[in-house]
Design a protein that fits this description.
The structure is a homotrimer. Chain A is an all-alpha fold. The first copy, chain A, has one domain. Helix content of chain A is 77%, strand content 0%. Chain A has ten helices and no strands. The radius of gyration of chain A is 17 Å and the shape is globular. Chains A and B meet through helix 2, helix 6, helix 7, helix 8 and helix 10 of A and helix 1, helix 2 and helix 5 of B.
Chain lengths: 208, 208, 208
């Protein structure tokens, strides 16, 4: 699956840039920027592999992840003043990355004979956890908990992937359809600024 | 040990509710609430299993954890305005859960041939770490570091468990006695508002 | 390598003290102080061992770590008013510990047949991650991201270690030389207050 590997690397690249940008804004030194880029890009897959006991874990088994991340950090440093206008391109890369991370993580879970629901969680861990670690290390409340349709997009795409699997659809079609579901939901959500419902303060204060 | 499994599930349920409540107060969206409930409920056991290499780890090997947590989140959402008066019931569930988590974690450590002290630490990790992860993700200083007799209760119960084990007491009695020790210490401590001693600012400022 | 084991224990002791001091300043209770001392001292090696699947992990396989840490906590409590004047001694222990942690972690990575670059990362994880976990749990932005030449010293020493390894230098000489590189860089950096360059706010605001 050469195309998927390429997209995996592109997703890693995009995630590393997003981590590097956050760290630079926080005025971390060079080394701090690299660490944050690193955990953002491979943290989700690392967490998944540790939890399902898949050794060697992602970036240990394939040195290309490290190269990709270092390249992304240099790239971010050089073009930091030009990345702002590229926001749409970045969003596209990021969204494609998320969809691939979700589906690869889910499929890896199935390959390890996990219950489909656990595999679904693993897909989401792969896509989401890098950002969570990034936010914890830079002392932000993880963005995903507050106003991101992000996880719901991953969940929906993952469910579609599982259902198409049960329907024995050809696996290329299964992958592409599910990826498109994730990309579509996230794009529409961001464009229309949808958010998941939350228990509002008013509703909740009655309870507390 | 069917009763213990039931109590394990009840403890998971209680921990998930405590996590969901914290996340709702922070106005997390639905997905954030589920994640926080999840890590609070299974984070300790997950950490233990990863550290002692016990795969499949708790919630991967038994899908019931996921169902329990999802049920707890729905329950918390529906009855959030009624959980406040239930505070005592919640405290009871929570305390029972802690005692079971501690002893199951400790016993699992012994089963894996760990040094009794390391097994003791594993019991405490099982009981305590879910709350620590919850607090880190919601950006609070982990409660347990500041004013909780919580960990001391677990430690005392764990030590009793080990000693009764050496004394070759029947294992049901061993389990129940140790659990009661934990429940008693924590209940008395909360009722009487005991805290562990800390090095006060005054004492310490001399040093710094 | 008995000397190296001794230095490993001394490093663990120094790291535990540094963790205990931070936790005491934050007015954690006794148990909180122990936890922070513990994760500071063994967190890096624990992370490394989990990632490379080296079980039993450091403090599970060798009970001496727990004893060392408990001793360090008692020591810190007793002599907290006298540790300030000992700052230089502490810095020395800490720096020796870092150098040993880096090189032992790196060598362990090589023993596990990791790519040399991944092994280098593992050396740094071993030396650095305990402090990162300490800072996350005590709600500080990890120091290392902001103004520590710390990681660069580890990296430089690690590279020297790898190069001397390729040059087939005798392994005692290889170890000592690399350790001295780390100790020297860090000492000079702290004395002269070097910092790694960072992307300044001015430079960056153009981009954001």
């Amino acid at each position: 699956m050469d195309i998927i590997y390429s997209i995996d690397i592109i997703g890693t690249f995009a995630f590393a840039i997003s981590g590097a940008l956050v760290a630079m804004k926080k005025e971390f030194d060079v080394f701090g920027v690299i660490i944050i880029a690193f955990v953002t890009a491979v943290g989700g897959g690392m967490m998944r592999d540790v939890l399902i006991n898949a050794h060697p874990i992602n970036w240990i088994g394939d040195i290309n992840y490290i190269w990709t991340i270092l390249t992304a950090v240099v790239f971010t440093f050089l073009f930091r003043s030009k990345i702002a206008p590229l926001r749409r391109t970045m969003f596209l890369f990021d969204t494609i990355g998320i969809s691939v991370f979700t589906l690869l993580g889910l499929q890896k879970g199935l390959n390890y004979d996990l219950h489909p629901f656990v595999a679904l969680v693993m897909g989401m861990v792969s896509a989401v956890f890098g950002g969570v670690i990034r936010d914890v290390l830079t002392r932000k409340v993880p963005l995903i908990f507050k106003k991101e349709i992000y996880a719901s997009a991953c969940l929906s795409g993952g469910v579609v992937y599982l259902l198409l699997g049960y329907a024995e659809v050809h696996e290329d079609l299964q992958f592409i359809t599910s990826a498109l579901v994730i990309i579509l939901i996230r794009t529409v959500a961001v464009v229309k600024e949808y958010e998941l419902p939350k228990i509002t303060k008013d509703l909740f204060t009655k309870a507390s």
